[in-house]
Design goal:
Helix content: over 70%
Radius of gyration: 15 Å
Number of strands: 0
Shape: elongated
Structural class: mainly alpha
Order of helices and strands: HHHHHHH
Distance between the termini: 12 Å
CATH class: Mainly Alpha
Number of helices: 7
Number of domains: 1
Length: 119
């Protein structure tokens, strides 16, 4: 089972995230797991490749809100950069930003999966 200590080791600001959930750790942990199911992560990469920067910005902005409110710092850092570049409709290579976000998400998923194993 995922714990707040696990998330602290991941780099999340758990105290801040739990505070945003009215001090309810169980709610916080459920929301962290739920945010990973957001299909926006995959759609974001696709819309960037299609250079649909308006749609990509909308998705990035929504994801930024979700991961920021949960204080998932390793995901917040790359999504903030993506969001601001997309807000400005910058024509540039976004592949490193998308890669950093995917890696931070993968690490969190791996942490959750490791803690759900039954021994």
């Amino acid at each position: 089972m995922l714990t707040v200590e696990d998330l602290k080791s991941y780099g999340a600001n758990v105290d801040e995230g739990v505070a945003r959930c009215a001090g309810k750790e169980e709610l916080y942990l459920r929301l962290v797991q739920k945010v990973l199911d957001d299909e926006g992560f995959d759609i974001l990469a696709e819309t960037i490749l299609e250079r649909d920067y308006d749609k990509a910005f909308d998705i990035a902005h929504r994801l930024k809100g979700a991961v920021s409110n949960l204080s998932l710092t390793p995901m917040t850092i790359p999504i903030e950069g993506l969001t601001e570049s997309l807000r400005a409709r910058e024509e540039r290579d976004y592949s490193q930003d998308v890669k950093a976000l995917r890696e931070a998400k993968r690490q969190l998923e791996q942490l959750i999966n490791t803690n759900e194993r039954v021994f």
